[in-house]
Predict the structure of succinate dehydrogenase.
Amino acid sequence: MMLDSKIPEGKLEDKWRNYQAQSHLINPANKKKLNIIVVGSGLAGAGAAATLAEMGYVIQCFCYQDSARRAHSVAAQGGINAAKNYQHDGDSVWRMFYDTLKGGDFRSREANTYRLAELSAPLIDHFVQQGVPFAREYGGVLANRSFGGVQVQRTFYARGQTGQQLILAAYSQLSKMIRAKKVEMLPRHEVLDIVVINGKAKGVIVRDLATGEIKRFAADAVVLATGGYSRVFRLSTLAIGCNGSAIWKAHKRGAFFAAPSFTQIHPTALPQTSEAQSKLTLMSESLRNDGRIWVAKKMDDERKAKDIPEEERDYYLERRYPSFGNLAPRDIASRAAKERIDAGHGVGQLKNAVYLDFKHAINKFGKPVIEDKYGNLFTMYEKITGINAYQEPMKISPAAHFSMGGLWVDYELMTTIPGLYAIGECNYSDHGANRLGANSLLQTSIDGYFILPNTINNYLEGEIGQKHPGVEHPEFAHVENEVKVQINKILEINGNRTADDFHRELGKVMWQECAMSRNRKGLEKAIVQIKVIKEQFWKDVKVTGNNNEMNTELEKALRLADFIELAILMCTDALQRDESCGAHFREEYQTEDGEAVRNDDDFKYVSVWEYNEGHFKLHKELLEFEYVQPTVRSYK
């Protein structure tokens, strides 16, 4: 199969405008005849569902949470980027495009990345009009701060709860469409498979999580907005329910998976404190604007932080990356923390953390200023740890966070299955091998509000005069039966180990061999180990209860079955990429001082995987750089 990215002709700054000028239109009467299923209700899903409904399409929106506003977008803290240059510090659309392309280590499409930057400014205006209470300067203009990987201030924020404020705005728009009966909202419904008829996505098979009932839903197009898959590591900053099942089922139905091993490790999470822990808590990267990261120069220093004098502290990010300091990109900051921890300078209960210190900022600006910027984050930290971070440093540690990889999509955000779209974090489109901070809320919102509503018409225009298969079509019965067979198979095993136990084992393998650093020997070993876990899972997992009821153990087991298969693909992808780029750090390819060595001659492509009966076939989307030539990615 040929990969057609559908990048428009013209200059970089004209491509999106050219695309819109040539795209097809559908009149309002015909839109009412077309049904679209949106899976997910975060910023991408809610934005898409509300906007498409406003345009006149008939929308059904599904989420596994009990309310659409419980989507994980609510957890984003630090801010959302936009090239408005309010600070007059040299920012521009081009600068933001370049920062994002460089931040992703030149492993993303120029056209998609430029569009992200181009649409950032109108998105902020869009949210302001929706009532998002962004922070403002004394004179009333919107405030900005910096995030990692840039030397300008372009991040708009609402204290440390930006995601929450944006999701409330999106939820308000979605609620308006629900009340107008233009969107049917189905919470506590989990999509278990995709129905493909004559090569096109035509519906989904869904489990009602409250009753266990398996249901069929037909549509003219299906949009996946289901978020990332970093829960494959088990311990992550993601909510416990976050999973990759929808995109994995789509992959097995024919949607190609791109760059699955590109997963981001966030440098500022609360450290793991025990084996019993089920997730990790994110502390916003925005804290690195005013906080300074350090460890004691002396190994295994048992002194309290306040007792270690300045001359005996190692501000290692400032030492190694003087141009960017504590605002080095996430992948670099995480690896630097790991290097210090592994060298015996870690702090905390398990010696697996470093300090994030606000002493200097409080002395310079005063506590009220820091409290105004980050107050809710300090409150959250104290509630969890019992430590007042105004008086002593926070302890932070790297943690699995964002998925740059996901379903392969073209410029229109359509997967390799016609009629199946992937938006937000569940696609691979804009971030390359590493996402810059505050670009996540940006991408999800732009995909849902601005891009998909302008691209989906091109496909649906061709569906108007076609037959619309209903749920009585034989393929719906066939896929539903496959879903029921898998559920019954898991329930009938009645083994001795819980899904959580298997997930804990899988997470340890993935964190050790396919997280912050990888090597050939470790990846080969991991693939063997994961295949053993898979075999044991299908022989010895124990799921209590039955399918005809609310059954969270069954939910976890079904999702874990997909995680196990995805983990094999992630390791396979990391193994074939013999270079270090962004979050993919192969230990065999580094400089003497531990920096990544990229190989543009052999790996200037997006790895795109086709599922083939349990095996994976590699396709390559070659990346062409017409406007920016890849350079050595340096932040020193």
In short: The mean pLDDT is 96. Residues 191 and 246 are 6 Å apart (CA to CA).
